[in-house]
Backbone:
């Protein structure tokens, strides 16, 4: 099982989501940004590294929000979600071809990655 972390960033009632770039696994799907936990990293350290690598911003990792195990057929992931605040503006991503801020209601109209859907439902239930 591969451990993956997701950053839940909220500003003015909207959450950051990003679309996987062409050529990437799950290209065209939207997700909460993050990435794979590398050997020797804690999930929090992984989120800090991923936010720096993908967006060039420093991340302050907050509360653990929950997780979801999902089988994509070729791999099984455990997606761990954390509240994240960042210093700096999120303008573009090195791993995604588009980023947007969307309300929970608006996100229901995006083609989300299957592993992210239960996280969206969890966030909506606790919002």
Residues:
């Amino acid at each position: 099982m591969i451990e993956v972390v997701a950053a839940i960033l909220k500003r003015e009632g909207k959450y950051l989501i990003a679309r996987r770039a062409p050529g990437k696994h799950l290209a065209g799907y939207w997700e909460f940004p993050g990435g794979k936990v590398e050997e020797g990293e804690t999930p929090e350290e992984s989120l800090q590294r991923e936010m720096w690598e993908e967006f060039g911003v420093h991340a302050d990792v907050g509360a653990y929000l929950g997780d979801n195990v999902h089988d994509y057929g070729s791999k099984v992931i455990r997606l761990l979600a954390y509240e994240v605040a960042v210093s700096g503006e999120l303008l573009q991503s090195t791993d995604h071809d588009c980023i947007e801020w969307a309300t929970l209601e608006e996100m229901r109209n995006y083609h989300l990655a299957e592993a992210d859907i239960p996280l969206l439902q969890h966030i909506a239930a606790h919002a």
